Amino acid sequence: MNLKELKAPSNTITFNKENIENKVGNIYEAIVIIGKRAEQINTIIKNDLNQKLDEFASNSDSMDEIFENREQIEVSKYYEKLPKPTLIAIQEWLDNEVYFRKTDE
């Protein structure tokens, strides 16, 4: 997943209900699938952020180093500006990029 090439909006917008439920015929089922994908995306983003922040971890507890670490602040600001995982999942759903299967069939 390339976070730099996301097409999802960064603010909340209203989606057409019919576009979301067309693939499965049931809005509730579509929401469950989108929700599970949003959880996966959230885990990916969280792990990526933790890996990048681990690079800045220091063994010494100097207050000067904590307040002057601008690179760490820039990384955090970048991840704060990303679209929410739910919006990313909805955009993937609308672009037919989400694979799902029904286990009861």
Overall description:
- With 105 residues, this protein is an all-alpha fold.
- The protein has a domain at 17-55 and 69-95.
- Helices cover 57% and strands 0% of the residues.
- The chain contains 5 helices and no strands.
- Helix 2 runs antiparallel to helix 4 (70-81) and helix 2 crosses helix 5.
- It is elongated.
- The protein starts with 16 loop residues before the first helix and ends in an 11-residue tail after the last helix.
- This is DNA-directed RNA polymerase subunit omega.
- Keywords: DNA-directed RNA polymerase, Transcription.
- One of its GO terms (biological process) is DNA-templated transcription.
* Number of H- or I-type helical stretches: 5
Based on helices, strands and strand pairing, what is the structural class? mainly alpha
Number of strands: 0
Q: What number is the mean pLDDT? A: 83
Measured between the Cα atoms of the first and last residue, the distance is 30 Å
Q: Could you tell me the radius of gyration in angstroms? A: 18 Å
Q: What share of residues is helical?
A: 55-70%
* SSE sequence, one letter per element: HHHHH
GO molecular function, one term: DNA binding
Keywords: DNA-directed RNA polymerase, Transcription
Protein name: DNA-directed RNA polymerase subunit omega
Organism: Apibacter muscae
State the gist of this model.
It holds the Pfam family RNA_pol_Rpb6. By secondary structure, this protein is an all-alpha fold. It has five helices and no strands.
Topology:
Blueprint: H1 17-21, H2 27-54, H3 63-67, H4 70-81, H5 85-94
Helix pairs in contact: 2-4, 2-5
